[in-house]
Amino acid sequence: MVRVVLPTGEIREFMQLECFKxxxxxxxxxxxxxxxxxxxxxxxxxxxxxxxxxxxxxxxNLTSDKVREILAEMAxxxxxxxxxxxxxxxxxAKEIPKLGGRPxxxxxxxxxxxxxxxxxxxxxxFENDEDCFLDEDDEE
Length: 140
Description:
This protein is 14% helix and 37% strand. It is built from two helices and ten strands. It has helices at 64-77, 122-127, and strands at 2-5, 11-14, 18-27, 30-37, 47-52, 55-60, 79-81, 88-90, 104-108, 132-134. It starts with a strand and ends in a 6-residue tail after the last strand. The model is unreliable at 112-129 (pLDDT under 50).
């Protein structure tokens, strides 16, 4: 378990964190956010995510070195303080392109009951307004 001070000043404890790779992709004159759970730590990892019943918490637009630094401190100290570290607190993933690469904190709410919460085929991803979440195997 790791204790985290959120950029909002709230303290929470999490059982499991996962790294992700995120990219903004232009397709059919629209831009979509594609998120892939990282299966290994490499130079393409750009963020950390916590999945919970109430949705997801994401810290993104990070370098892989910054992700490594955060994870190392969490493992060593059992905590990490995101307060006053320059994270933009955003309410919606649609705000990410406007950040110009600055690190962000996003607490995503769950999708309405009955809709798909994770995973979608490439065709579905680019036909609706939702972000696209893929497994790393789907990347090709």
